[in-house]
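Supplementary Methods S3. Input chains for the assembly prediction are listed below.
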Amino acid sequence: MTENEPLLSVQNLQKHFPVHKGLLKRQVGAVKAVDDISFEVFKGETLGLVGESGCGKSTTGRLVTRLLEPTGGKIVFEGRDITHAGQGSLRPLRRDMQMIFQDPYSSLNPRHTVGAIVGAPFRIQGVKPEQGIKKAVQEILELVGLNPEHYNRYPHEFSGGQRQRIGIARTLALKPKLIIADEPVSALDVSIQAQVVNLLEDLQNELNLTYVVIAHDLSVVRHISDRVAVMYLGKIVEIADRKRLYSAPMHPYTNALLSAVPVPDPRARADRERIRLTGDVPSPLNPPPACRFHTRCWKAQEICKTVEPPLEELAGGHRVACHFPENAPEVPAGSAGTPATA
Amino acid sequence: MSQQSFLDVKDLRIHFPTDDGLVKSVDGLTFGLERGKTLGIVGESGSGKSVTSLGILGLHKGGRARISGEIWLDGEELVSASPEHVRGLRGKKMAMIFQDPLSAMHPYYTVGDQIIEAYRIHHDVSKSVAKKHAIDMLGRVGIPEPTRRVDSYPHEFSGGMRQRAMIAMALSCDPELLIADEPTTALDVTVQAQILDLMRDLQREFNSALIIITHDLGVVAELSDDILVMYAGKCIEYGTTEDIFYRPEHPYTWGLLGSMPRLDREPTERLLPIKGSPPSLINVPPGCAFHPRCPYAELTGGKAGTEVPPLAETEGGHLVRCHLDKAERRRLWENEIKPVLETQ
Amino acid sequence: MLAIVSMATFAIFFLVPRLAGATAEGMASRYVGRTATEETAKLAAERLGFNDPLIVQYGRYVKGIVAGAEYDYGAGVEQCPAPCLGYSFITRQPVFPDLMNRLPVTLSLAIGAALIWVLLGVGIGVLSALRRGTVFDRFAMIVALAGVSLPIFFTGLISLQLFAYGNPFNWAAQGGYYVTIEDSPARWAYGLLLPWITLAFLFAATYARLTRAGMLETMNEDYIRTARAKGLVERKVIVKHGLRGALTPIITIFGLDFGLLIGGAVLTETAYSLNGLGKYAIDAITNQDLPKVMGVTLLAALFVILANLIVDLLYAVVDPRVRLT
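Predicted structure tokens for the full assembly:
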């Protein structure tokens, strides 16, 4: 594992979706789905991307895999700038970078057999595995915990969890270096979620994979990630290694998110300190100026409405974009601002 | 029938004949619930939890469903009551909150109109009186500027606001039984927390009986007094929230607890999932429906695959449907399961 | 809107003569009569400007619509007051008043039929959806299938046989019978009864199928379940919540069908010898009377465009979600 050489490096990435209106379809604005975000992913690690709906986490995934064309910024994969790589030069890239989707029902073609689905990457990329495609596919099926004899079955014969395994098998076919998983378990039942989470972890250890896991479930992200980035309205507001982020979150939004997760411990419900945000996430079409969180933040001051806080490193590897961070190194932990609501 | 609860469900069965066979969505469910109390029904997809709630309201689909058993609501039996009588109770005495407020509200009518309609079905009042009531209700569920928002359409609301409006609609006739089917699943985490708080506060205020149906153990832990765990149409464990979280006795409940990554504990290396998938309701395994996925099935001496275990009381109202001996279950929990979960 | 109308006139002006294979002399010779010599025809063509560049001719045509026109073909001058959609030298009539004479017939036919087919189609569709799989549903859908597949000249002739010629009934007027509504509403309806039913049969079938499909879909929506959970009586659930949801696509189709129809119900008018716009169009085409063809095409295009506009506006009324975007 080379620590200093990132596998994927994203710099000031932007994606604006133009909004058209009126008879002549003039552009009247843009949804800044992803607005100037930067992060790195190192070989062998898992970066978690969390946030609520509309925060731009899925768009980020699609930009990195180049399913969407970035508006600005730079994406560097293995030292190569792929920001605006054309279809031709993207082809080899697709071997190294794969995507797992949320919905195991709609992401598999119902008319193709499992063998055809998992073997498709070989055919598309013109790769001929030495043991033959069928054998290679069966090995992968076994790897993800499916019966290799199910090679000739169709997706509808499988349960949701098994379908997600098929989806994962497909991404693994060409031994990619980076896998972007967009809500890989959120459509699955609780007991199945755990199976898939474990599978992803085992595969990572076995094949030395690098993951970017996009999810809204903070518990799943914590479980699976080494580092976690929290997004809000197209911005990364905080990024840190897992332990730091979950034990000493600095951004008020991260604090609120963590506090909002229902805890499966009935005795704890009485004495838990809660931070309750008011209102919903504002529309990304018209985000609040400066710090985008100021409309819902209990610590907001004048400066938050006028000056956008930069994403700054406040502790080792812990970057946060806030004028008044909590748990900041200068202030002893605990005495930092108390939430307004309990 | 010595003492009756406010809601008493006895041996409820809801079966659907299909071309592929009989689907036993709910198969012999019994439970009770008092006013002011909250029951959490937990289960995975196809466990029958949603069909149960629809059955109580008499909304299980049409003429093809076969329903049997008894549902006593405040001393009235609903299964044998006329559909018209049950309709009169719906919305007034018992109401429901659905999972996705966007699709559960009619896109062509304003939020106000929909609440007004709900109110006027059961109250013979003029439109303007009902509108005042609707505005009042919207205010009570925390919608800002209710006098203006009452004329908005559902699509003009955010997800959280829509669910608040849905709750306002359900509570507009002051129902004594409120059923919430996955009320926060479609919402963001921070909004989910708001809605859970709101439901807790409103329940206290209205003193209604609340059934919350969810797959999320965190949500039931936050709200419930009692929990009913369903698997393949049957109750497999029932007890107080403390029972289920601190003294669970069914291997499936253990599996659910072990499957969840938890924020309140140090992360473990691995989760402890349940093997296999939930069964299809057309093809429920014989004997104990859970036995193909149960790690302890062989300890039952072959009974697991042949006999349906009875739902038996282990202690003070805590019911478990399992062939394992009570002492054996407790030993497994204390020595094998709890230590692993606690180190999380 | 105005842009689309002018685009339509433009297209009609350039395409119709081309499609009819008309030449400048050919057109002019029709204007001066069959007995004219080649020279007079050439002269007339020159005077009427048939040799001018098309764009100039088009300008003159548009000017005629707005301000009226005069046609000087050498042997005399014909007046064509605004709005002038051309002048037929075969019948020696301006086209526009002709069209206006024919319009009430088509309009009567279209409105009456529309009323019947909407009530019948939507009604049967709703009932079919609610009684899905029953004998009623199957029978209704078979009849609907027949309605969609049988052409009007067939159903028209059959119904004339059955109901007008007295085998076995004699309830309705035979072909070509039209009395204006001002003269006698009863006789007006009597005369149009068969055409209405024939036309409505075709459309009602489509609408029944559409409504049935739409209702089946909406009755499965979550909001229907919500309406029932409120304790609403089933009839209101169906009409207020179900039908309201299913109606949107039907309104769209209705607008377009109706717009198309008032431009001329060609087959029905022919089958029943009604002198409406459709028959006018057919006659004009058979006689190669170009100004008439162009006029009636333009009018029909106008109706379709107008219907489209109304549908769009109506859409916003029906579905609040389209309003702001």
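The longest strand of chain A covers residues 26-42. The radius of gyration of chain A is 21 Å.
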